[in-house]
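Curious: can you check?
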Amino acid sequence: MTHRIAVYVRDGLLAMELGIVHRLFGQARSESGELLYEVVTCTDVPGPVRTDSDVRILVERGLEAVAAADTVIVPASDVDYETDLAAASPPFDVVSSQRLASICTGAFVLAAAGLLDGKRATTHWKSAARFAELYPQVLLDPNVLYTEDGNVLTAAGEASGIDLCLHMIRQDFGAAVANRVARGTVVPPHRSGGQAQYIDTPVPRTHSTSTADAQEWALRNLGSAPSVEDLARHQAMSVRTFSRKFVAEVGVSPARWIAAQRVQRARELLENTDLTVERIAHDTGFGTATSLRNQLAAELGVSPSAYRATFRVGG
């Protein structure tokens, strides 16, 4: 069944964010080539909508599109940056079965409606202080790319909106579909939501100072369950120096990155091969099927067999 997405836009829309949503979800197709999403744009009153550039867009759908959607996405508007203006609540009701998402300062709209109360959320780091002042009831985390709390997801900025869209595609239709979309858009297939929004002093990716070689080596040797010590040794660095440089480059600790790569590889093998759960556990460094089952249950809330039944390519 096609998943319906409504993109709710406002005056001053950041046009790039609208393009991100349509481009990414619009590329998602099944193995047989069928579109997996129907993406429509809507606004309060159909008609021309001003963007942050020198063009306007003609939005033909009104709020009835929201009621018919499985997912509602709210991009940012340039009016969100006006410090004396609090974003208005969206003029529509949401139902418990709908998934809600925001990109950048679109989170202000969800917060104004009380949809983020008591939930973990993020927004662009430049607007984080103002957001926290206006909505203290929201569990704001300004240091991550995106968040997910129940049926509500928020992305920190335009580029992290790409990560969030790929994350939702991965949730809905599996890693294989998300990876094809990422390749088609020429972006990394996966960046953890917990990764830092920005880096003050990036480390140049050279042979002598980067951890890239160790990352590539780890990906080729996930089955041996590489440790942080192994990666540091491969890069000819002390564990302390390697860990510091790794976090500066990647945004998360080496141990957390390794764990995420092992889960990602297990998901891909479950989707694309007929290997047994025991063999996949061995090839991804989990050791035993029980360990893999526990990890998938913790990360995704499902067993390996249930995940395979849902996302098996061609299955």
